[in-house]
Amino acid sequence: MPAARQDYEALNAQLLDELPTMFRLADSLFRDSVCSFLYAQKQFTDNILKEMVAAGDKLVRSSVTLIFRIYKIVLCNQAVCSYPWW
Predict the structure, then answer these.
(1) Which long-range contacts (CB under 8 A, 24 or more apart) does 65-73 make?
(2) Are 80 and 86 spatial neighbours (Cβ–Cβ below 8 Å)?
(3) Span 43-81, pLDDT tens digits
(4) 85 pLDDT exceeds 70?
(5) H-helix or E-strand containing 33?
(6) What is the pLDDT of residue 80?
(7) Residue 82 φ then ψ, to 5°
(8) Does residue 25 surpass a pLDDT of 70?
(9) Within a 13 Å sphere around the CA of 14, how many CA atoms are in the beta-carbon half?
(10) How far apart are CA 12 and CA 18, in angstroms?
């Protein structure tokens, strides 16, 4: 029994000595992993946002073109309908 107690105390002392180092390394690994994840997520959202803005620009341009064409047709129809021969 005294041998088991000595082994336990020796291992416990070693664990207490090494635990702060292990915690510091685990903390550093965790922080680096979270930072890498957040950076990748930021890159992803930036790329998606750029694609959405590009798609929105195309949509706005096509909408403005469509509105202009409709307005032109309406004005032409009003001009034609306002002539006396109609």
Answers:
(1) none
(2) yes
(3) 898 888 888 878 777 777 777 777 777 777 776 666 555
(4) no
(5) helix 2-81
(6) 53
(7) -85, -10
(8) yes
(9) 6
(10) 10
